[in-house]
Each structure stands twice: as C-alpha cells, then as structure tokens.
C-alpha cells in the first residue's frame, strides 16, 4: 500500500491531506473521504488504508486547514466522557467557521486534485464522510452531480436545518447510503428523512444502526461499536463496487 502526506492548492491557501492507494495495478477509482470533526489522526488513516486496500485511491483532506496543519487540535489518545467536553470546546469554533461557501470552494479543489492524479482512473469519484464529514460529503455530491458517482455519510447530520436538508436532497443525483446512530436519529425522523429522499427520486438506503451512539466508527472514542463499524463497511463497499468498479 502506498501512502503519502501532501498539500492541495485551494482558493484560500493549501490544505494538507493524507492519501492512500494500492501500490500497483492502477489507476484506481477515486474516493474523497471527509474525516469527523476531530480530523485526521491514526484511526482515520486506518479507515482510509482499509478502504484503499479494496482497490481505491482515497484522499482525506484536513478541512480545517485555514486554522493550521494537522493536527489542528491536539487530541488525547482516547476520547471519552472525561475529556470529550474539553475537546469539543476546541473543535466547535472550527466547525462553526467552516461555512457552506468554504465547503464548496474546497470541494472544487479536492475533486480537481483527484482528477489530476495519474493513479486515479478517469470518470466520477465517490465521496464519503463521518460525523460533520457526512454533511460535507452530501454538500459535495449535491454541488457536483456530474463528478460524484456515489455518496455515503455515517453518524452525521443531513443539512444544517430542515430547509437546508431538503435543498441538499433535491440536488442529489448519485446513489446515497446514510448510516445513522441511534442516538442521533429517532425512528420518526428517519421516516420523514426517507420520505424526502423518496420524493426527490434519490436512489438511497438510509437506516439507523441499532444500539449505536454518535461516532460508532471511530475506534479512539467511547462511541466505537465494532459490529456497527463492520456494518458500515458492509454498506459502503457494495455501493462503491456498483458505482465505481462496475460502471
């Protein structure tokens, strides 16, 4: 497996990023992966490496690069109940400053970068994300219908509010998978969300992963759930296979 740390020119500077892809037999379908609010760290690099091992070029940008290179916020080795409030106190200002306009300007740069890499095959890419990264993935897919073949989000919001959610859904053209934490989504809210996806004609699966808390894919948090993390792979990999490898 080949890994590298690199810099991506953007409209507002340079975003540092982590990339992983198989060392041979390229080019590979491209995947833009947005990390959760805690950013690029060993557990996120491991997720990217696992996905790359299935035959993809995976790019993970530091979306908070305007505030500094990775690590933007120093994190404890394990994020649990005792230190989560202090971590979120440092992270929330970064999230609040990362406006939709910034997201879309950066998405242009990330997609352009993927398109320029000789290791990335021609054609649309997939976008996936965790926590706030799931929302960034949806914004990217909605803004680039011709360049995104699939989008997935895990334990993340769908829009800043209902109006934003409905606008995003109306602009989606790629197949979508949304894996919600039980602590984030009530059954009633899921029904409402899925009705909106159906009404917009979006090819989707959208479900609550049973018994899960927000952050269930992240092994460096108390929310980590091994069974739910495996379920997220069981949903993500077939989606990428049918939209990227079999196109």
Question: Could you give the topology of this structure?
Answer:
Layout lengths: L1 E9 L2 E9 L8 E5 L7 H11 L4 E5 L22 H14 L2 H17 L8 E6 L1 H12 L4 E7 L7 H10 L4 E6 L5 H13 L4 E6 L16 H20 L2
Parallel strand pairs: 3-4, 3-5, 5-6, 6-7, 7-8
Antiparallel strand pairs: 1-2, 2-4
Helix pairs in contact: 3-4, 4-5
3D structure, described in words:
This protein is of the alpha/beta class. The protein has helices at residues 42-52, 84-97, 100-116, 132-143, 162-171, 187-199, 226-245, and strands at residues 2-10, 13-21, 30-34, 57-61, 125-130, 148-154, 176-181, 204-209. It has an 8-stranded mixed beta sheet, with helices on both faces. Helix 3 crosses helix 4 and helix 4 (132-143) crosses helix 5. The radius of gyration is 17 Å and the shape is globular. The two termini are 24 Å apart.
What features would you highlight for this structure?
247 residues, alpha/beta, Rossmann fold, 7 helices
Describe this structure in a few short sentences:
With 247 residues, this protein is α/β, with parallel strands linked by helices. The chain is built from 7 helices and 8 strands, in the order βββαβααβαβαβαβα. The chain has helices at 42-52, 84-97, 100-116, 132-143, 162-171, 187-199, 226-245; strands spanning 2-10, 13-21, 30-34, 57-61, 125-130, 148-154, 176-181, 204-209.
What is the CA-atom radius of gyration, in angstroms? 17 Å
CATH class designation: Alpha Beta
CATH architecture: 3-Layer(aba) Sandwich
The level of helicity is 25-40%
N-to-C span: 24 Å
Order of helices and strands: EEEHEHHEHEHEHEH
What is the number of independent domains? 1
Structural class: alpha/beta
The overall strand count is: 8
The total count of helices amounts to 7
Supply the CATH superfamily name.
Alpha/Beta hydrolase fold, catalytic domain
Low-confidence stretches: none
| Major sheet summary line | 8 strands, mixed
Mean pLDDT: 96
Q: Fill in the CATH topology.
A: Rossmann fold
Shape: globular
Q: Walk across the major sheet and give the strand order.
A: 1-2-4-3-5-6-7-8
Content of β-strand: 15-25%
């Amino acid at each position: 497996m080949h890994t590298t740390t690199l810099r991506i020119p953007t409209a507002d500077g340079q975003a540092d990023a982590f990339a992983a892809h198989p060392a041979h037999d390229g080019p590979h379908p491209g995947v833009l992966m947005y990390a959760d609010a805690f950013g690029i760290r060993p557990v996120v690099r491991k997720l990217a490496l696992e996905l790359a091992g299935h035959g993809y070029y995976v790019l993970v940008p530091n979306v908070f690069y305007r505030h500094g290179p990775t690590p933007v916020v120093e994190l404890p080795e394990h994020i649990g109940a005792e230190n989560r409030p202090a971590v979120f106190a440092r992270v929330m200002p970064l999230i609040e400053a990362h406006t939709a306009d910034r997201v879309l300007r950066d998405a242009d740069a990330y997609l352009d970068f993927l398109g320029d890499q000789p290791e990335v095959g021609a054609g649309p890419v997939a976008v996936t994300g965790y926590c706030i990264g799931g929302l960034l993935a949806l914004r990217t897919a909605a803004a680039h219908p011709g360049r995104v073949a699939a989008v997935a989000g895990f334990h993340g919001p769908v829009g800043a509010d209902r109006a934003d959610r409905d606008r995003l859904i109306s602009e989606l053209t790629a197949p979508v998978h949304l894996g919600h934490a039980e602590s984030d989504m009530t059954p009633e809210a899921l029904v409402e969300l899925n009705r909106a996806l159906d009404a917009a004609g979006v090819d989707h699966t959208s479900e609550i992963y049973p018994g899960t808390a927000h952050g269930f894919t992240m092994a460096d948090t108390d929310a980590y759930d091994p069974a739910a993390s495996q379920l997220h792979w069981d949903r993500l990999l077939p989606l990428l296979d049918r939209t990227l490898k079999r196109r």
